[in-house]
Design goal:
By secondary structure, the protein is an alpha/beta fold. The chain contains six helices and nine strands; from the N terminus they run ββααβαβαββαβαββ. It has one domain: Vaccinia Virus protein VP39 (Rossmann fold). The longest helix has 12 residues. About 35% of the residues are buried. This is Methyltransferase type 12. Keywords: Methyltransferase, Transferase. It comes from Pseudoxanthomonas suwonensis. It holds the Pfam family Methyltransf_16.
């Protein structure tokens, strides 16, 4: 038996009901071999991957509508992977990534729960280059700017893995670090369109949730 407990949760996205295995509560912790600790995951952070957060549901809803035709998509900090599962169901070329040691088995279980093939998954630390991951047309993430240094780390991931023509979509519950991330991406040639979104049924205007959509178009090489 694992040293943590789980429950099944159902959530509707675009009229489709998804079944997900998540951690039973936010107090879970199990790191018997110290793997999580070696990755820098504290006991307080350990359970974060295993919940469906409001920003994660918002990202999944955005991916239900997003044009994915011919685009390779990378999800950062995917956790239980609802957004990537939505993309998988739509036939997108998606790679889910996280650094938590339990993310991969949770993703595989949740894909099977919904009669989908296993997701393409890569363990990715934002501070460690992974050249074999390659480049992407779209990079997505939800609620990943909760620490001050995350803005710079994520911008570095974009540097390494976004094509010159690229999009970045981040759903954020109104954290202050999103402004710094936006400035860093502006320095890299991205233009931002921000949409305010309700984070749950109780949220009222002005909504605290944000869908941050960054786009960059490569500069054409002049013909001499």
């Amino acid at each position: 038996m694992p040293g943590y407990s789980t429950r099944n949760q159902c959530v509707s996205v675009g009229g489709h009901v998804w079944r997900l295995r998540v951690l039973s509560d936010k107090q879970q912790f199990s790191d018997p071999d110290g793997h999580g600790n070696r990755l820098g995951i504290s006991s307080a952070q350990w359970s974060l991957f295993g919940q469906l957060w409001p920003a994660g549901r918002l990202l999944a809803q955005a991916m239900q509508r997003f044009d994915v035709d011919g685009k390779r998509v990378l999800e950062l900090g995917c956790g239980i992977g609802l957004a990537s599962l939505v993309l998988q169901q739509r036939g997108a070329q998606v790679v889910a990534s996280d650094m938590h040691p339990l993310t991969e088995p949770f993703l595989a279980y949740n894909a099977a729960l919904n009669a989908l093939p296993a997701l393409h998954y890569r363990q990715l630390r934002w501070d460690v280059p992974l050249p074999t991951l390659g480049h992407f047309d779209v990079i997505i993430a939800s609620d990943v700017l909760y620490e001050h240094d995350h803005a710079a780390l994520l911008a570095g991931v974009v540097d390494r893995h976004a094509w010159p023509d690229a999009e970045v979509l981040v759903t954020d519950p109104g954290r202050g670090n999103s402004a710094r991330f936006s400035r860093l991406l502006a320095d890299r040639g991205f233009t931002l369109v921000e949409e305010r979104c309700p984070m749950d049924d109780r949220d009222e205007p002005p909504y605290r949730g944000r869908l941050l959509h960054y786009t960059r178009v490569a500069q054409a090489t002049p013909v001499v």
